[in-house]
Amino acid sequence: MIRVMLVDDQELIRTGLHTIVDSHDELTVVAEAADGYAATSLLETTEVDVVLMDIRMPGIDGVETTKRIRATRTPAQLRILVLTTFDQDENVLAALRAGADGFLSKGAGPAELTTGILRVALGEHALSANAVHALVDHVTDGMNRPADPAVAALFSALTPRELEVVEAIVRGSSNADIATEMFLSPYTVKTHANRAMMKVGAHDRAQLVSLAVQAGIQP
Question: How many domains is the chain partitioned into structurally?
Fold first, then answer.
């Protein structure tokens, strides 16, 4: 059973999230917090696998809370999935740079939400299509810029299949979506994605998207 902590300053939102998470057979809510201070305090005494957290909260926001959690817990020890109603690129980037493992919109349906939790719990990154598009917009400033030859050269080392996977990731597709589209297993897709990240020097999926766009790969 995957143990989930909910962090949101709105009780009504937490109640709704609690209902959705607990309705899944593999998930259970073990703690709730109304702000980052309470969340970091609860983590000292509560065993948690995934923190599901709002990015906009009074006191310390989700980005700062993520930084504080990462100061004591590595991704291997605890996963962090950020939720927000704002699909602004600075929020996406700040959360991921702080150490979040995924970013979903509060408008996500129950299936997308529970799937996102399961994915980060398994060690993957969960990025909604909106989050990926925000990353792309940030890198390109909303314009079609010419590819950076030096960055494009990094991607020339990818196999055709690895490049296909990267293109799908830039479009915002999950590993499961890519697996269905390409008639591969999710494990094989993850392997291709990891090899692509290693070849181009990307530390995570978000950086892979950023580099791909700089290389001229568009969604």
Answer: 2
